Each structure stands twice: as C-alpha cells, then as structure tokens.
Amino acid sequence: MSKTVETTPFQNQKMGTAGIRQKVQIVKQKNYIENFIQSLFNAIGGVEGQSFVLGGDGRYLNDIAIQTIIKMAAANGMKKLIIGQNGMLSTPASSHILLKYHLDGGLTLSASHNPGGENGDFGIKYATNSGGQCSSAISERIYQQTKQITSYKIEDVEDIDLSKIGTQKLGNMEIEVIDPVKDYLFMMEEIFDFEAIKKLFQSGFTFVFDAMNAVTGPYAIQIFEEVLGAPKGSVHQAVPMPDFGGLHPDPNLKYAKHLVDLMYSDHAPDFAAANDGDGDRNMILGKKFFVSPSDSLAILTDNYHFIPAYKNGISGVAKSAATSTAVKRVAENLHINYFEVPTGWKNFCNLMDSNRITFCGEESFGTGSSHIREKDGIWAVLFWLNIIAATGKSVEQITRDFWKKYGRTYYLRYDFDGIDTAVADQMMRDLENNLTSFVGQTFNGYTVKEAYPFVYKDPVDGLETKNGLLVYFDGGARICFRLSGTGTNGATLRVYIESYDQNDFDKNSEHELQNLLQVAFKLAKITEFTGKTQPDLTT
Ligand code: VG1
Ligand code: CO
C-alpha cells in the first residue's frame, strides 16, 4: 500500500561537485533521505513509467537508504529498478548499467572518498539518461524543490531482499537484482587486451590492488585474480565495510600511506594501485615510484595506441582547469582536441556525448574515457597494466620516457580544511578583486603573466560556469585557487600549483614548489584570513 507522508523542508540539501553529501548524523534525521528523493523525483517531472539503476558503495546507511528509495520509487510509479546485489554498485559500474540498458536515471549511494561509518559522511549521486551526473541546472531545480517540499510518497511494506540475483515485484514495479561485477567485467574485456595482461601475470609480474575496504573489492578479486590470474591475495582490503574499516577511502599519499610504505619498502611488488570508496578514483605506484594523477592522464593519452579499444584513434582529451597542463602538451603533439573544464566529472559529459573527446581526467586521482560517463578506477589500473604488458617497461620507465619526450610538470595540491564558510568566501572575493593588479608583478622570483577567473562556456549547451581563479607565471608555472564542493565540514580551500622543467626530472616536488606555495599564501592572504601557516593536506 502506498501512502503520502507529510514533511517539512530541510535547508541544507544542495548538491555539490558530485551529488549531495552530508554527515551521517544529519542524514539520519527523520525524513532527510525521503525529502531529498521526493524533491529529486518532483524536479525531474516525476518518475512514472521510468527505469533506474540503484546501488552504492556499501557505506553506513547504504542498506537503510536503499530500502527507502525502493519503496519511494514504487510509490511514485517507477516501472523498473535494477539494483546491485546487496545494494552494491561502484559509480563506474552504475554508469555503465545506465548506458547499456538505456535507463532513464541512476542513483549511487556514496560520499565517494569521504570517510564512512556512523560519524562519517553519506551521499547520493544522481545521473540522468546520459549516464553522467546531472547538470548544475538540474541540481538547482532539485534544491529549489527541497526547500518547498510538503509531502512524499512511499510504499508501506516490508524490506526487500536484495541478497539474491533475480527479479521480483513491488506493486507494479519490477526489481531486478543483478551481479554488480558481470556487465562491468564484459566491458573491460572489450576495451583491454586481457590475453596480454594474463601473460604478464604468468611471467611472474607482481601486483597489489588496495580496495580500501570499499566497493571495488569484489570487482578487483574477480577481474585481477580470477580472470587475469594475478596471484591470490594480490587484492588487499577486499571486503567492503560500512565504515571502510576506519580508513579514509581516498587513494592518495596520505590516506593510502600503508600502500605507499609498501611500495617504498624492499618487498615492493612491481606495481600497486588503490581505488576510492565508490571506485571512480585511482592511485598508481611503481617500485619506489609515485605517478602524479595529472601525469597519469597525460601518459595514458600518449599511450592510447596500445589499447585495443582506442587503437583506431582518439578524438580528444579534456582535463579540469585545476589539473596540471601536462596533458595539453600531449594533445598538441597528437593533434587531437583539447579542453579545460570546471572541476567535476559532469563537465566532461557533453564533450564525450558529442565525440569531441575520448579521454578525460582530474588531478584528484580521476581518469576515464567515453566508455562511460564517470571516472573509472579499475579502468585506469587496467590501462596501466595493458601498457606495461605491451611495452615490457616498468611504471617508472614509462613515466621517465614520458618526461623525456614532453618535460616534467611538477605538481601538487594543497588543501586548507575546516575554514569558516563566510571567511573562505571573503578570501576568494578579495583574491578575485586583486587578480588584475598582480599582472606584471614579481613574487619570489616568479613574474605574473596573466591572472583571471576560470570561466567555461560549454560548446554544446552554451552554458557558462565559473570555477576557480588562475594565476600564470612566466616560464610555465601556475597556481589555481578554488573552494571544494564535496566537503561536509566548513569550507576547504584547494591551491593547485605546478611548475615545468624540460631538463631536470629528479627534483623533489614539495621542495620545487615551496616558493610558489609561499606566493600562493601571499596572493590569497591565506594566513591573514585563516590563521593557517601551512596546508592541512598535500597530495
Ligand atoms: C573533488 C575533486 C574533484 C572530483 C570530486 C568528486 O571535488 O576535487 O576533482 O570530481 O571531488 O569526486 P571538490 O569540489 O571537493 O574539489 V568523487 O570520487 O568524490 O565523486
Ligand atoms: Co569517488
């Protein structure tokens, strides 16, 4: 039986860079999820007769939220829901299901790389029939609905059993529980040279994949160990847990330090990788060697011809403005399209839909291609394995060859967390107002060539988005400032810094960028506004 329940609005249901994200304790409030889901359904003109894919990264509240959404979908007249077994689906796998079965939409229950558990974060990403997350225009409509909502519809029934693969009914709605890995594995087999990668493992190549106790564990076991023949035990932390075993499932030098330590020890395997909570981010490591994500995008692009699915050519590549310019040099050399977009994967989607680009990536450990409309962690790992299998070179050799050809971009991101939101906004406004006055001035030996806010005009829909402030220096150095749109604790200032060197590839990045970091402090008056004298996180 379906019922209508009266409710009152919450004021904090605005989506950020990638869906809505909040502290679990906020999401746990009565009607919080219900309000958001009904507002979403209302904002898109209802879901009657539609088919959606539904799943999540298994974090705390995944099980409860998924039942709520199933019952609300049925009460709102949805025709069909395809759900990952036990409610699990990685973000890339969900995008693939959406596209493969021509569905109307998708919901992924995840706060991605944010911590989980009772005191962690919860989130919901919403994708449209394009396979990618909804545009800012749609998320704005949803937000407006959340501020007006007065009631929601829900079926008054027992919870649905999601443990068995197969089809069942809830009222008129069909529920199909699927194996979360199967379709995704088929797609990966079509893109990469699995035979070559199998031979690589047969030859004794050693490998560790760290699933960070999150959603990719079952994908990685099946793909790397069972199908490709990596030794059993190659996949670490493979069982998804609601609190990710206390880990912060963000694959970077700080939160995957255990893996970094292994790779810099004497028992390092030949190659290691990690993914984030929902499986869309990746970190790549060789023996005593870390590949910066911006370099990884550039290296994959430069080596596209080793991959069966791309060997007939790629149309172009895009990066977020904050990402290093390494890939730009590759695009120029390959004579392919090149775009810079605002941060957030949704900004790549029109470029992929219109075949302007094949690859895209972000400095935040995200790389992907037009095979789906999300970044894809396991895809990136397979891409690297395929290059290694085809060339016989190590991660370090592949990267050094790349630097020799194009020069090296030294690049780091510095985060300043937990800033009062009003203070952060004021700091950004001040900086923006001062930008033009910096041009021609020299700071710490770096002369400002250009400085302006980054504004992107989407070539497909013509919409303009402003995101971040850019300062370019003579000699190729660059600083980008922007505020995070995924945090749940005040504001986070992100400062992205790069410098370029055509000859010396062995400098320490932190040391190399130290002077520019001091310039960033000065330009944005970071200490004056925040009291902070150093960043909270460097990745
Ligand atoms: C961050 C990253 C951005 C990424 C986004 C979602 O956003 O910087 O590159 O697309 O997270 O990734 P922000 O606004 O906090 O900088 V995920 O893996 O959290 O979906
Ligand atoms: Co993610």
Keywords, separated by commas or semicolons:
539 residues; alpha/beta; Alpha-D-Glucose-1,6-Bisphosphate, Chain A, domain 3; TATA-Binding Protein; 3 domains; seven-stranded antiparallel beta sheet; 17 helices; 25 strands; binds alpha-D-glucose-1-phosphate-6-vanadate; binds cobalt (II) ion
Describe the structure.
There is one protein chain. Helices cover 34% and strands 27% of the residues. It contains 17 helices and 25 strands. The strands form five sheets. Strands 2-6-5-3-4-9-8 form a seven-stranded mixed β-sheet, sandwiched between helices. Helix 7 crosses helix 13 (377-391). The longest helix has 18 residues, at 421-438. The model has no long low-confidence stretch (mean pLDDT 97). It binds alpha-D-glucose-1-phosphate-6-vanadate and cobalt (II) ion (CO). Cobalt (II) ion is lined by residues 91, 112-113, 276-278, 280-281. Residues 91, 112-113, 276-278, 280-281 line the site of cobalt (II) ion (CO).
CATH class descriptor name of the largest domain: Alpha Beta
The helix tally amounts to: 17
Task: Supply the CATH architecture of the largest domain.
Answer: 3-Layer(aba) Sandwich
Question: Quick check: average pLDDT?
Answer: 97
State the share of residues found in helices, binned by percent: 25-40%
Q: Low-confidence parts, pLDDT < 50 over ≥5 residues?
A: none
